[in-house]
Write a structure and sequence with these properties.
Low-confidence stretches: none
Strand content: 5-15%
Radius of gyration: 32 Å
Shape: elongated
């Protein structure tokens, strides 16, 4: 350390390796940009994902090279060589090819590497499109560039932060980690490096993160509405790699890499704190991966779990390389006390929460969908999906909550804000529906009647006939839920005065969606808007058309549910049609 040695012929080898590696990356991303996603197999996707995960693991090992540890040989050489992936040009002895060892130009070279690679990829792609006489696909190019930025995000963070990475020397002087001759915040030379670093931070860590977050934020709405999905082709680097339920994983992936890069910068002289924080970040990521299994293929998920698990074990083993001192024991004592306090507070919090929920259960569900399965099971499935699309909170649908059916009356009266009675022809004749309706009326839960064309409320004579039709099994159900059969008619009479929304299973998509909007408005105490007339017909922008028979109300709703499922899975606009006129 601190000794300048003359450059030799062997110093050319790292530079040649770096050039070949860079060219290989550009060519690899060019091949990716030319690939037809629709023809890509799952095996190819798995191989690409695992290869990318290996690259991220190598970058993480490069971060470990900046930790305050005394690495033994040959491990030291291996770990330090990994820093080349993080654009640490000192590894390839770039000073041997410059007129002078200029830290500013060195950092500038690191920061412009990515733009130069992007320009090279653009030139290669454009030239190939001219030679092959095909149209230059800007979306595919942008997708390849986005994947490159996502894969190398940790590298770009490390490169941007290198100018403000300062460590305290044994004599107490704060110097730049990569150039101990420069004092931090005490010289014009370092101020230039700091300004350049802050510019890099704004462009790379902050810029890439902000751009990706706004795309991820808009993605569910674009998919659910079926509008502009073609534009999402250029964002496949954020979404194709992950399952749809974990579409948000790209944001967590970027945030975790940013925090990993910050650890050696914020705590530059404490190997103990560095290892504790990095282990915590890796363990959180490890646990989240096991919880969500976010990657698009099973093997890719296993590979990510193995890679992060291996890095955690590697770090724990490396903790023995931290130099022991009184400060280390003091830090460990504080950390252990904090961990013990967190465990105690966590357990106490869980007990307190359980007691609180016992006495104040609150409204877990915005809507409870009361329905007769034979007449409206599929309609309720569609209603639940559409309510969630339009921003509603969770809905209770019994087929999704089988473990809670024994406490159905309690769910209505203590966990539901509004009960939506999906009124098909026979809904009032079903004993379990009676239990749900009576529980809502008795406990003053908000009620909305969604009236289907074949439904009508009973008059007083009809209610008396219904009362006499309950059999012993029905009465047993009433008794087990604390419902007096004599009060059912009173509760049914109350339905004559509740807000009612007409819902026609044979109406157009727009009319049905407007009905759901009205339901949400009534539930929130808002005034209903005037409806506009809509002509029937399939969405002309749809790429997939679901055809079905229009003679059955439940059959029509089955087609609509299927269309929603296909659109969610395939991420392309889907429409339904029930007549040749609607289809064409």
């Amino acid at each position: 350390a601190g000794i300048c040695e003359p450059c030799g012929g062997s110093d050319l080898v790292p530079m040649l390796f770096a050039i070949l590696f860079g060219l290989g990356l550009v060519i690899g991303f060019y091949v990716y940009s030319r690939a037809d996603i629709s023809k890509s197999t799952k095996t190819t996707l798995t191989a690409t994902l695992v290869l990318a995960q290996m690259g991220v693991m190598v970058q993480t090992l490069g971060v470990f090279g900046d930790l305050s540890l005394r690495w033994p040989e040959p491990l030291k050489t291996v770990v330090m060589s990994m820093k080349l992936i993080n654009l640490d040009l000192d590894v390839i002895k770039v000073q041997c090819y410059m007129p002078a060892d200029d830290p500013f130009l060195n950092l500038m070279g690191q920061l412009i590497t990515f733009p130069l690679a992007a320009i090279g990829l653009a030139c290669l792609t454009f030239a190939a499109s001219k030679i092959k006489k095909v149209e230059f696909n800007l979306n595919r190019y942008f997708n390849a560039l986005g994947l490159c930025a996502l894969m190398l995000y940790l590298t770009l963070c490390m490169a941007s932060l290198r100018g403000v990475h300062c460590i305290r020397q044994p004599n107490g002087v704060l110097t730049v980690a990569t150039n101990p001759a420069i004092k931090c915040w005490d010289s014009g030379e370092h101020m230039g490096l700091a300004v350049l670093s802050f510019l890099g931070i704004a462009v790379y860590p902050v810029g890439i993160m902000t751009y990706c977050l706004q795309v991820i934020w808009r993605y569910p709405r674009l998919v659910k509405e079926g509008h502009g999905l073609d534009l999402l082709e250029k964002y496949r680097f954020l979404f194709q790699r992950f399952t749809y339920p974990a579409f948000f994983w790209g944001s967590y992936f970027l945030a975790q890499k940013l925090f990993v890069a910050l650890v050696p910068i914020v705590f530059p002289n404490s190997g103990t704190i560095q290892i504790l924080l990095l282990s915590g970040l890796l363990m959180l990521y490890f646990g989240a991966t096991l919880r969500f299994f976010p990657w698009a293929t099973y093997i890719a998920n296993i590979a990510d779990v193995v890679a992060n698990g291996g890095l955690v074990v590697f770090l724990q083993t490396a903790s023995f390389l931290v130099e022991r001192s009184d400060d280390v024991y003091e830090v460990m004592g504080v950390v252990l006390m904090i961990l013990m306090s967190f465990v105690a507070v966590g357990l106490g919090g869980l007990v307190t929460y359980a007691v609180y929920r016992k006495f104040y259960p609150g409204n877990m569900y915005e809507f409870f969908l009361c329905h007769h399965k034979l007449g409206a099971a599929v309609l309720c499935r569609w209603l639940k999906g559409e309510i969630l699309k339009q921003g509603g909170r969770p809905c209770f649908l019994d087929s999704d909550e089988l473990e809670g059916l024994a406490d159905i009356g309690d769910i209505v009266k203590s966990q539901s804000k509004t009960i939506a009675i999906v009124a098909s022809k026979l809904v009032l004749t079903r004993p379990w529906c009676s239990v749900e309706i009576c529980s809502a009326v008795i406990n003053k839960v908000n009620i909305i009647l969604i009236q289907c064309p074949d439904f009508s409320l009973y008059d007083d004579e009809g209610l008396e006939e219904l009362k006499s039709s309950w059999n012993e099994t029905d009465k047993m159900i009433f008794a087990s839920n604390g419902i007096d059969p004599d009060i059912i008619n009173k509760c049914y009479r109350h339905l004559r005065s509740v807000p009612t929304i007409d819902f026609d299973q044979f109406a157009s998509d727009e009319v049905q969606k407007q009905s759901v909007t009205d339901i949400l408005a009534l539930a929130n105490g808002k005034q209903l808007k005037m409806r506009r007339s809509v002509s029937p017909g399939a969405d002309p922008a749809a790429k997939i058309l679901v055809l079905g028979s229009g003679s059955s109300a439940e059959g029509r709703m089955t087609c609509k549910v299927l269309a929603d499922m296909v659109q969610s899975r395939m991420r392309v606009p889907v429409a339904t049609a029930f007549t040749p006129e609607e289809a064409f």
